[in-house]
Amino acid sequence: MKIAFFDTKPYDKPSFDAFSAEAGMEIKYFETKLTPDTVSLAEGFDAVCVFVNDNVNAEVIDRLCEMGVRAVALRCAGYNNVDVKHAFGKVHVFRVPAYSPYAVAEHAMAMLLTSIRRIHKAYIRTRDFNFSLSGMTGFDLFGKTVGVIGTGKIGRVFIDICRGFGMKVLAYDKYPAQDLDNGDTVRYVSLDELFESSDIISLHCPLTEDTYHLIDAESLAKCKRGVVIINTSRGALVDAEALLSGIKARSVGAACLDVYEEESDFFFEDFSGHILDDDILARLISMPNVIVTSHQAFLTEEALSNIAETTVKNLLDFMRDGGSPNEVCYRCGKEADCGTRGKCF
Predict the structure, then answer these.
(1) Does residue 345 surpass a pLDDT of 90?
(2) Which of 106, 261, 263, 309 is the catalytic position?
(3) The one catalytic residue among 92, 107, 204, 295
(4) Over the stretch 92-139, which tens digit does the pLDDT of each residue have?
(5) Facing residues of 187 across strands?
(6) pLDDT tens-place string over residues 205-254
(7) C-beta separation of 11 from 306 below 8 A
(8) Catalytic site residue 234?
(9) Beta strands in the chain (DSSP E)
(10) Residues 75, 92, 234, 261: which is the catalytic one?
(11) Taking a C-beta distance cutoff of 8 angstroms, is the pair 13, 29 a contact?
Protein backbone atom coordinates (compact mmCIF):
# COMPACT_ATOMS: atom_id res chain seq x y z
CA MET A 1 0.00 0.00 0.00
CA LYS A 2 1.35 3.42 -0.97
CA ILE A 3 0.61 6.36 1.31
CA ALA A 4 0.93 10.09 0.49
CA PHE A 5 1.78 11.75 3.79
CA PHE A 6 0.95 15.49 3.90
CA ASP A 7 2.03 18.33 6.22
CA THR A 8 5.08 16.37 7.34
CA LYS A 9 7.19 17.55 10.25
CA PRO A 10 10.55 16.06 11.34
CA TYR A 11 9.00 14.53 14.46
CA ASP A 12 6.48 12.55 12.37
CA LYS A 13 8.93 10.37 10.49
CA PRO A 14 10.68 8.14 13.10
CA SER A 15 7.47 6.54 14.43
CA PHE A 16 5.77 6.23 11.05
CA ASP A 17 8.90 4.81 9.42
CA ALA A 18 9.10 2.13 12.12
CA PHE A 19 5.46 1.02 12.01
CA SER A 20 5.05 1.29 8.23
CA ALA A 21 8.16 -0.82 7.65
CA GLU A 22 6.73 -3.59 9.83
CA ALA A 23 3.45 -3.40 7.88
CA GLY A 24 5.11 -3.38 4.47
CA MET A 25 3.71 0.04 3.60
CA GLU A 26 5.44 2.64 1.44
CA ILE A 27 5.17 6.26 2.62
CA LYS A 28 6.03 9.32 0.57
CA TYR A 29 6.41 12.38 2.79
CA PHE A 30 5.28 15.82 1.58
CA GLU A 31 5.93 18.96 3.61
CA THR A 32 3.05 20.80 1.94
CA LYS A 33 -0.48 20.66 3.31
CA LEU A 34 -3.20 18.83 1.42
CA THR A 35 -5.37 21.42 -0.36
CA PRO A 36 -7.17 21.69 -3.70
CA ASP A 37 -3.91 23.11 -5.10
CA THR A 38 -1.73 20.21 -3.89
CA VAL A 39 -4.08 17.23 -4.14
CA SER A 40 -2.51 16.20 -7.45
CA LEU A 41 0.53 15.03 -5.44
CA ALA A 42 -1.61 12.06 -4.33
CA GLU A 43 -1.69 10.67 -7.90
CA GLY A 44 -0.67 7.00 -7.87
CA PHE A 45 -1.20 6.49 -4.12
CA ASP A 46 -3.73 4.25 -2.38
CA ALA A 47 -4.34 6.53 0.60
CA VAL A 48 -3.46 9.93 2.02
CA CYS A 49 -2.41 10.63 5.60
CA VAL A 50 -3.38 14.09 6.87
CA PHE A 51 -3.27 16.24 9.99
CA VAL A 52 -5.42 18.96 11.57
CA ASN A 53 -4.66 21.77 9.12
CA ASP A 54 -4.98 19.81 5.90
CA ASN A 55 -8.08 20.74 3.92
CA VAL A 56 -10.07 17.66 2.89
CA ASN A 57 -13.04 19.47 1.40
CA ALA A 58 -15.47 18.32 -1.30
CA GLU A 59 -13.16 19.39 -4.13
CA VAL A 60 -10.22 17.49 -2.65
CA ILE A 61 -12.36 14.39 -2.03
CA ASP A 62 -13.61 14.37 -5.64
CA ARG A 63 -10.06 14.65 -6.97
CA LEU A 64 -8.90 11.83 -4.67
CA CYS A 65 -11.69 9.64 -6.04
CA GLU A 66 -10.76 10.48 -9.62
CA MET A 67 -7.16 9.44 -8.90
CA GLY A 68 -8.19 6.17 -7.27
CA VAL A 69 -7.25 7.13 -3.71
CA ARG A 70 -9.45 4.98 -1.48
CA ALA A 71 -8.74 6.18 2.05
CA VAL A 72 -8.03 9.28 4.13
CA ALA A 73 -6.11 8.45 7.30
CA LEU A 74 -6.22 11.22 9.90
CA ARG A 75 -3.36 11.14 12.36
CA CYS A 76 -5.47 12.99 14.93
CA ALA A 77 -8.78 12.60 16.77
CA GLY A 78 -10.71 15.55 15.33
CA TYR A 79 -12.08 15.47 11.79
CA ASN A 80 -13.70 18.89 11.39
CA ASN A 81 -11.31 19.58 8.49
CA VAL A 82 -12.85 16.71 6.50
CA ASP A 83 -16.16 16.99 4.68
CA VAL A 84 -17.33 13.61 5.99
CA LYS A 85 -20.76 14.02 4.47
CA HIS A 86 -19.28 14.43 0.98
CA ALA A 87 -16.78 11.62 1.64
CA PHE A 88 -19.54 9.10 2.36
CA GLY A 89 -19.64 6.51 -0.39
CA LYS A 90 -16.50 7.93 -2.02
CA VAL A 91 -13.50 7.47 0.29
CA HIS A 92 -13.08 5.85 3.68
CA VAL A 93 -12.03 8.18 6.51
CA PHE A 94 -10.15 6.91 9.55
CA ARG A 95 -9.03 8.75 12.67
CA VAL A 96 -7.01 8.15 15.83
CA PRO A 97 -9.64 8.49 18.57
CA ALA A 98 -7.17 8.26 21.46
CA TYR A 99 -3.41 8.62 21.22
CA SER A 100 -2.46 9.97 24.63
CA PRO A 101 -5.18 11.68 26.64
CA TYR A 102 -2.51 12.26 29.29
CA ALA A 103 -0.40 14.34 26.90
CA VAL A 104 -3.19 16.82 26.20
CA ALA A 105 -4.64 16.90 29.71
CA GLU A 106 -1.20 17.40 31.28
CA HIS A 107 -0.42 20.20 28.84
CA ALA A 108 -3.68 21.94 29.77
CA MET A 109 -2.73 21.79 33.44
CA ALA A 110 0.85 22.89 32.67
CA MET A 111 -0.48 25.97 30.89
CA LEU A 112 -2.87 26.72 33.74
CA LEU A 113 -0.15 26.49 36.39
CA THR A 114 2.26 28.51 34.28
CA SER A 115 -0.36 31.24 33.90
CA ILE A 116 -1.70 31.55 37.43
CA ARG A 117 1.74 31.22 39.12
CA ARG A 118 3.45 33.51 36.59
CA ILE A 119 6.09 30.89 35.77
CA HIS A 120 6.68 32.32 32.29
CA LYS A 121 7.34 35.78 33.73
CA ALA A 122 9.60 34.41 36.47
CA TYR A 123 11.67 32.52 33.91
CA ILE A 124 12.32 35.67 31.89
CA ARG A 125 13.02 37.81 34.97
CA THR A 126 15.53 35.52 36.61
CA ARG A 127 17.49 35.08 33.37
CA ASP A 128 18.05 38.84 33.62
CA PHE A 129 18.99 38.42 37.30
CA ASN A 130 15.80 40.21 38.31
CA PHE A 131 14.61 38.48 41.49
CA SER A 132 11.81 40.89 42.38
CA LEU A 133 8.44 39.33 43.24
CA SER A 134 6.46 42.42 42.35
CA GLY A 135 3.46 41.51 40.18
CA MET A 136 4.03 37.77 40.63
CA THR A 137 1.16 36.97 43.02
CA GLY A 138 -0.92 34.03 41.87
CA PHE A 139 -3.71 32.01 43.47
CA ASP A 140 -4.25 28.51 44.85
CA LEU A 141 -6.03 25.91 42.76
CA PHE A 142 -7.16 24.11 45.91
CA GLY A 143 -10.85 24.76 46.53
CA LYS A 144 -11.42 26.43 43.17
CA THR A 145 -14.18 25.33 40.79
CA VAL A 146 -13.19 24.17 37.33
CA GLY A 147 -15.71 23.77 34.53
CA VAL A 148 -14.82 20.97 32.11
CA ILE A 149 -16.70 20.96 28.82
CA GLY A 150 -16.33 17.54 27.24
CA THR A 151 -15.84 14.43 29.36
CA GLY A 152 -14.29 12.03 26.90
CA LYS A 153 -10.90 10.43 27.52
CA ILE A 154 -8.96 13.73 27.67
CA GLY A 155 -11.60 15.55 29.68
CA ARG A 156 -11.73 12.77 32.25
CA VAL A 157 -7.95 12.68 32.65
CA PHE A 158 -7.99 16.45 33.15
CA ILE A 159 -10.73 16.04 35.76
CA ASP A 160 -8.60 13.48 37.63
CA ILE A 161 -5.67 15.92 37.62
CA CYS A 162 -7.89 18.73 38.93
CA ARG A 163 -9.24 16.53 41.69
CA GLY A 164 -5.66 15.81 42.70
CA PHE A 165 -5.28 19.55 43.31
CA GLY A 166 -8.39 19.56 45.51
CA MET A 167 -10.58 21.34 42.98
CA LYS A 168 -14.32 21.00 42.56
CA VAL A 169 -15.43 19.98 39.08
CA LEU A 170 -18.51 21.04 37.15
CA ALA A 171 -18.83 19.01 33.98
CA TYR A 172 -20.88 19.32 30.81
CA ASP A 173 -21.21 16.85 27.98
CA LYS A 174 -23.92 16.23 25.43
CA TYR A 175 -23.51 12.53 26.27
CA PRO A 176 -22.70 12.35 30.02
CA ALA A 177 -20.57 9.50 31.32
CA GLN A 178 -22.59 7.26 33.60
CA ASP A 179 -19.96 6.79 36.30
CA LEU A 180 -18.45 10.28 36.55
CA ASP A 181 -20.91 12.37 38.59
CA ASN A 182 -20.48 11.60 42.29
CA GLY A 183 -22.86 14.32 43.44
CA ASP A 184 -20.07 16.08 45.34
CA THR A 185 -16.65 16.89 43.90
CA VAL A 186 -17.72 16.13 40.32
CA ARG A 187 -21.18 17.10 39.07
CA TYR A 188 -22.78 17.34 35.66
CA VAL A 189 -24.52 20.68 35.24
CA SER A 190 -26.04 22.80 32.50
CA LEU A 191 -23.76 25.00 30.40
CA ASP A 192 -25.25 28.11 31.99
CA GLU A 193 -24.46 26.88 35.52
CA LEU A 194 -20.97 25.90 34.42
CA PHE A 195 -20.33 29.37 32.99
CA GLU A 196 -21.77 31.14 36.03
CA SER A 197 -20.00 29.10 38.74
CA SER A 198 -16.57 28.19 37.35
CA ASP A 199 -13.33 29.96 38.26
CA ILE A 200 -11.60 28.12 35.40
CA ILE A 201 -13.11 26.68 32.20
CA SER A 202 -11.29 24.05 30.16
CA LEU A 203 -12.49 22.85 26.75
CA HIS A 204 -12.15 19.18 25.80
CA CYS A 205 -14.86 18.73 23.18
CA PRO A 206 -14.88 18.28 19.39
CA LEU A 207 -15.68 21.10 16.99
CA THR A 208 -19.19 20.69 15.59
CA GLU A 209 -21.98 23.00 14.51
CA ASP A 210 -23.20 22.94 18.13
CA THR A 211 -19.83 23.82 19.66
CA TYR A 212 -18.63 26.42 17.13
CA HIS A 213 -17.81 29.60 19.13
CA LEU A 214 -19.01 27.95 22.31
CA ILE A 215 -17.00 30.60 24.10
CA ASP A 216 -18.27 33.90 22.70
CA ALA A 217 -19.37 37.30 23.98
CA GLU A 218 -22.67 35.89 25.24
CA SER A 219 -21.15 33.01 27.20
CA LEU A 220 -18.33 35.17 28.57
CA ALA A 221 -20.92 37.62 29.87
CA LYS A 222 -22.30 34.80 32.03
CA CYS A 223 -18.90 33.92 33.51
CA LYS A 224 -17.36 35.03 36.76
CA ARG A 225 -15.20 38.11 36.52
CA GLY A 226 -11.60 36.95 36.26
CA VAL A 227 -12.42 33.53 34.76
CA VAL A 228 -9.51 31.61 33.22
CA ILE A 229 -10.18 30.03 29.79
CA ILE A 230 -8.18 26.98 28.64
CA ASN A 231 -8.47 25.57 25.12
CA THR A 232 -6.45 22.55 24.01
CA SER A 233 -9.13 21.15 21.68
CA ARG A 234 -10.04 23.12 18.53
CA GLY A 235 -9.47 26.81 17.90
CA ALA A 236 -12.95 27.63 16.64
CA LEU A 237 -14.51 26.59 19.95
CA VAL A 238 -13.49 30.09 21.05
CA ASP A 239 -14.45 33.34 19.35
CA ALA A 240 -10.98 34.88 19.51
CA GLU A 241 -12.24 38.43 18.99
CA ALA A 242 -14.74 38.07 21.85
CA LEU A 243 -12.02 36.58 24.06
CA LEU A 244 -9.71 39.50 23.28
CA SER A 245 -12.49 41.96 24.16
CA GLY A 246 -13.09 40.12 27.44
CA ILE A 247 -9.41 40.29 28.34
CA LYS A 248 -9.24 44.01 27.52
CA ALA A 249 -12.35 44.61 29.64
CA ARG A 250 -10.71 42.70 32.55
CA SER A 251 -13.65 40.31 32.69
CA VAL A 252 -11.43 37.41 31.57
CA GLY A 253 -8.56 36.96 34.00
CA ALA A 254 -6.35 34.82 31.78
CA ALA A 255 -6.37 32.61 28.70
CA CYS A 256 -4.31 29.50 27.91
CA LEU A 257 -4.55 28.62 24.23
CA ASP A 258 -2.89 25.71 22.48
CA VAL A 259 -5.17 26.17 19.47
CA TYR A 260 -6.44 29.16 17.54
CA GLU A 261 -9.28 29.66 15.10
CA GLU A 262 -7.05 30.72 12.19
CA GLU A 263 -4.06 28.63 13.20
CA SER A 264 -3.66 26.88 9.84
CA ASP A 265 -2.01 30.01 8.46
CA PHE A 266 0.62 30.14 11.20
CA PHE A 267 0.98 27.18 13.54
CA PHE A 268 3.78 24.65 12.98
CA GLU A 269 5.80 27.24 11.02
CA ASP A 270 8.54 29.75 11.94
CA PHE A 271 7.42 33.38 11.54
CA SER A 272 10.02 34.85 13.88
CA GLY A 273 11.52 36.94 11.09
CA HIS A 274 8.22 38.20 9.75
CA ILE A 275 5.39 40.55 10.63
CA LEU A 276 2.40 38.58 11.89
CA ASP A 277 -0.57 39.46 9.66
CA ASP A 278 -3.22 38.26 12.11
CA ASP A 279 -3.92 41.25 14.36
CA ILE A 280 -6.07 39.31 16.82
CA LEU A 281 -3.45 36.60 17.35
CA ALA A 282 -0.70 39.23 17.65
CA ARG A 283 -2.68 41.15 20.27
CA LEU A 284 -3.51 38.00 22.23
CA ILE A 285 0.15 37.00 22.34
CA SER A 286 1.08 40.51 23.49
CA MET A 287 -1.24 40.28 26.52
CA PRO A 288 0.62 39.50 29.77
CA ASN A 289 -2.16 37.18 30.95
CA VAL A 290 -2.36 35.10 27.76
CA ILE A 291 -0.25 32.02 27.03
CA VAL A 292 -0.24 30.66 23.48
CA THR A 293 1.43 27.43 22.43
CA SER A 294 1.32 26.25 18.83
CA HIS A 295 -0.87 23.15 18.98
CA GLN A 296 1.76 21.16 20.84
CA ALA A 297 -0.38 19.55 23.55
CA PHE A 298 -0.27 16.21 21.70
CA LEU A 299 3.50 16.31 21.22
CA THR A 300 4.98 13.63 23.46
CA GLU A 301 7.01 10.59 22.47
CA GLU A 302 4.25 8.31 23.71
CA ALA A 303 1.56 10.12 21.73
CA LEU A 304 3.59 10.17 18.50
CA SER A 305 4.19 6.43 18.77
CA ASN A 306 0.50 5.75 19.48
CA ILE A 307 -0.60 7.95 16.58
CA ALA A 308 1.66 6.15 14.12
CA GLU A 309 0.71 2.71 15.41
CA THR A 310 -3.05 3.37 15.25
CA THR A 311 -2.89 5.11 11.85
CA VAL A 312 -0.97 2.21 10.30
CA LYS A 313 -3.34 -0.30 11.93
CA ASN A 314 -6.35 1.58 10.55
CA LEU A 315 -4.95 1.21 7.05
CA LEU A 316 -4.03 -2.45 7.59
CA ASP A 317 -7.58 -3.15 8.78
CA PHE A 318 -8.87 -1.40 5.67
CA MET A 319 -6.65 -3.47 3.39
CA ARG A 320 -7.69 -6.71 5.09
CA ASP A 321 -11.35 -6.14 5.99
CA GLY A 322 -12.44 -3.10 3.98
CA GLY A 323 -12.95 -1.00 7.10
CA SER A 324 -11.81 -0.23 10.62
CA PRO A 325 -13.36 0.34 14.07
CA ASN A 326 -11.90 3.84 13.84
CA GLU A 327 -13.73 4.73 10.64
CA VAL A 328 -15.73 7.95 10.57
CA CYS A 329 -18.74 8.05 8.31
CA TYR A 330 -21.83 10.10 7.63
CA ARG A 331 -24.85 7.93 8.14
CA CYS A 332 -28.38 8.28 9.49
CA GLY A 333 -28.12 12.03 9.01
CA LYS A 334 -25.34 12.57 11.53
CA GLU A 335 -21.62 12.16 12.00
CA ALA A 336 -20.78 8.98 13.82
CA ASP A 337 -18.02 6.48 14.38
CA CYS A 338 -18.76 3.69 11.96
CA GLY A 339 -19.70 0.55 13.86
CA THR A 340 -20.00 -1.55 10.72
CA ARG A 341 -16.31 -1.53 9.69
CA GLY A 342 -16.99 0.23 6.41
CA LYS A 343 -19.85 -2.05 5.32
CA CYS A 344 -22.25 0.94 5.27
CA PHE A 345 -20.94 2.02 1.84
Answers:
(1) no
(2) 263
(3) 295
(4) 999 998 888 999 999 999 999 999 999 999 999 999 999 999 999 999
(5) 170
(6) 999 999 999 999 999 999 999 999 999 999 999 999 999 999 999 999 99
(7) no
(8) yes
(9) 2-5, 26-29, 47-50, 71-74, 92-94, 145-149, 168-172, 186-188, 200-203, 227-231, 252-257, 290-292, 327-331, 334-337
(10) 234
(11) yes
Q: What confidence tens digit (pLDDT) does each residue in 274-295 have? A: 888 889 999 999 999 999 999 9
The average confidence (pLDDT) of the chain is 93
**CB 323, CB 314: distance < 8 Å:** no
Determine the length of the chain: 345
Using alpha carbons only, give the angle 172, 174, 175 rounded to the nearest 5 degrees: 100
Strand pairing category for 26-29 and 200-203: unpaired
Would residue 327 show up in a list of annotated catalytic residues for this protein?
A: no
Place 265 in a pLDDT band, splitting at 50, 70 and 90: confident
Known catalytic membership, residue 241: no
